[in-house]
Amino acid sequence: MASAISIQNVSKTFHVSGKTIPALSNVSLDIEQGAFVSLLGPSGCGKSTLLRVIGDLLDSDEGSVQVLGKEARKSRQDRDYGMVFQQPGLMDWRTIQKNVELPMQVAGVGKAERAARAKDLLQLVRLEGFEGHRPRQLSGGMQQRAAIARALSFEPKILLMDEPLGALDEMNREHMQRELLRIWRETGTTIVFVTHSVSEAAFLSTEVVVMSPRPGRIATRIPIDLPFPRTDETRSTEKFYEVETQVREALHAVLEPTVTGV
Ligand SMILES: Nc1ncnc2c1ncn2[C@@H]1O[C@H](COP(=O)(O)OP(=O)(O)OP(=O)(O)O)[C@@H](O)[C@H]1O
């Protein structure tokens, strides 16, 4: 399958108050179109930095990122990306419908068209009936679904998600994982997803990329061959347990390199 994202030898160092923080070192990664790739690794290993470099929110010092065969900057200008962060970032003085319409409004999409598209997107994330609500009147999971709807406004080919479910309680989180898989399968978008959760990464992904601590490097790539559709039953299967264990062991290996010999 064609490559959606091609990262070649990317390095990034931050300089803060005379200190040098090597965040990424020589990262190379190819992500296929339609993949759901999770970046997993210890805190500070550069997951968010890598996501921001992919999304052209941050320049790398070295290396290159090609998205759909173009420079990342061109892809951002072409609105190939949708982005979702841990906080939904909705504006409380606008209704849910108007929040979802905002990027389209900024881009100059006409009133009737953006209203119709926002309505469709809210249907996709199952928020029909809440169009006129304010964000504070919705649960955290519902707000995050609205943020996902907003991120999908330009039918992005690439969805970059930085711990989007991290602030949710366990039940809501599992529900949103199922919803996210449904949306991914319905839209066919390529997803790069940052998480701290082994089981979340195993449940959602077609591939888990484990990163090692500072400076961030790709330590292991684990293809996840659990069949689709993945449901709550999937979580209690032997196969899921095996996959989860494999991911957990890979994470432990980067946390305890001297013990494991990695
Ligand atoms: N804008 C910045 N200025 C200076 N240092 C930064 C900046 N952004 C990230 N860093 C540093 O780069 C390293 C990687 O940070 P990053 O946020 O990418 O890690 P992460 O793996 O996403 O962490 P976490 O899992 O805790 O969110 C950290 O040491 C962090 O302090």
Automatic annotation (TrEMBL):
Sequence ranges assigned to domain ABC transporter in this UniProt record: 5-238
GO molecular function, one term: ATP hydrolysis activity
Domain of life: Bacteria
Pfam families: ABC_tran
InterPro entries named among the record's database cross-references: AAA+_ATPase (IPR003593), ABC_transporter-like_ATP-bd (IPR003439), ABC_transporter-like_CS (IPR017871), ABC_transporter_ATP-bind (IPR050166), P-loop_NTPase (IPR027417)
Keywords: ATP-binding, Nucleotide-binding, Transport
Xref: SUPFAM superfamilies: P-loop containing nucleoside triphosphate hydrolases
Alphabetized PROSITE patterns for the sequence: ABC_TRANSPORTER_1, ABC_TRANSPORTER_2
PANTHER family: ALIPHATIC SULFONATES IMPORT ATP-BINDING PROTEIN SSUB, TAURINE IMPORT ATP-BINDING PROTEIN-RELATED
Descriptive protein name: NitT/TauT family transport system ATP-binding protein
The species this protein was found in: Leucobacter luti
Classification of source organism: Bacteria, Bacillati, Actinomycetota, Actinomycetes, Micrococcales
